[in-house]
Amino acid sequence: MKYYSTNKQAPLATLEETVIKGLAGDKGLYMPERIPSLSKDIISKMKHMSFHEIACTVAQAFFGEDIEPDVLDKIVKDTLSFDTPVVHVEDNIYSLELFHGPTLAFKDVGARFMARLLGYFIKKQGLKEVNVLVATSGDTGSAVANGFLGVEGIHVYVLYPKGKVSPIQECQFTTLGQNITALEIDGTFDDCQALVKSAFMDSELNGHMKLTSANSINVARFLPQSFYYFNAYAQLDRAGKANELVVSVPSGNFGNITAGLFAHRMGLPVKRFIAANNRNDVFLEYLNTGKYNPRPSVATIANAMDVGDPSNFARILDLFGIYGDPHKAICGLISGYRFTDEEIASTMKRVYNDCGYLLDPHGACGFQALVQNALDANETGVFLETAHPAKFKGTVDSILASDIEIPAKLQAFMKGKKQSIELNKDFAGFKAYLMAQ
Ligand SMILES: *Cc1c(COP(=O)(O)O)cnc(C)c1O
Hints:
Elements: E1 3-5, H1 15-21, E2 30-32, H2 40-45, H3 51-63, H4 69-79, E3 86-90, E4 93-97, H5 107-125, E5 130-135, H6 139-148, E6 154-161, H7 167-174, E7 180-186, H8 189-201, H9 203-208, E8 210-213, H10 219-222, H11 226-238, E9 245-250, H12 255-266, E10 272-277, H13 282-289, H14 313-319, H15 326-333, E11 334-338, H16 341-355, H17 361-372, E12 380-385, H18 393-400, H19 408-414, E13 421-424, H20 427-435
Parallel strand pairs: 4-12, 5-6, 5-8, 6-7, 7-13, 9-10, 9-12, 10-11
Antiparallel strand pairs: 1-2, 3-4
Helix pairs in contact: 3-4, 3-11, 4-5, 5-6, 6-7, 11-12, 16-17
This protein binds pyridoxal-5'-phosphate (PLP).
């Protein structure tokens, strides 16, 4: 399978080139030339399959032409050492819990898959060292750093906005050492993302070191996220609840929902999607007006969604480019909601008190969007619970007046010593630092 750039100015690339490069030469995002479809028969059989079998079926459809079946099977197996259970919350609303991985957030899936696939390609090509640059608003950094920790031939630089990630998030990528370097940037997440993008475009820097990205712009990171949409379907199908599925995705860079849209295009029976946003609502505005106006992000209590210019928007537009009126087609499948910090907090309180279910601030947006969307009786709503509430313990405890337990996996990180390098947000300083490596 070949991959093209959303900007259509770069040559087609193989999977190997796509994964190693990350972003296309024309600054576009890579898209598979064709989206394979899974038959109704296969999809209806998924209720009898394990998560591993489901994921292998989906992975095979996308990557089967390019990777030997046993290698792919091993990569999938090593990626998914945990499950993504669907849990009932209230009425016809279910939580797809994506926080059972090593860093307790959904990004573990994509990060672990990408680390293994990239490691495999590097070895195959006999490359010396590849440097992964990753900008994070919190959860990406921890998932990527842990997914890539100790992978031979790869060095990871995590760029994060100083003072804007929670201490629990911070310790998950600043305490690892080995092949992981944390860069503390005096700026916002968008500044971090801009630095990474500039680095990829700088020919001198690219001559000095081989660079790639592990943000959800990388195909190997966002596509594997489609695995758990199928897994959610299988579980709800088993319970006889999968006929009219409405899927609500707390969204920031829109990689997660894009993977869901890919699953849908592959044949997954989802009636419609909801993109749930915090106050960073450029996508909602696009749905309402047809105009996309990126702007600086604002800080919220759902900080992994503080994104003012979602990078995967280009993929969504491209995906619907086959329709005469893409905006109309997008509005036909996806609706949007936005929530203020106060609304997020009151949702968390109500659900905790009424249902005994602990939502994190991101999942709360997904949940509340389903409530406000007023599902009809035949519909089943499922929201993606994207992180464990303990990752945002300070926020969660102050809202719920609770003292939630920190899972052992997280406590282990907190015992480590923070190591980071402080840089400001101008590109010259960042480049000089990398040139010296
Ligand atoms: C990254 C993240 C999101 C947003 O996901 P995107 O793929 O960027 O839209 C939502 N919730 C949590 C907890 C996250 O870490």
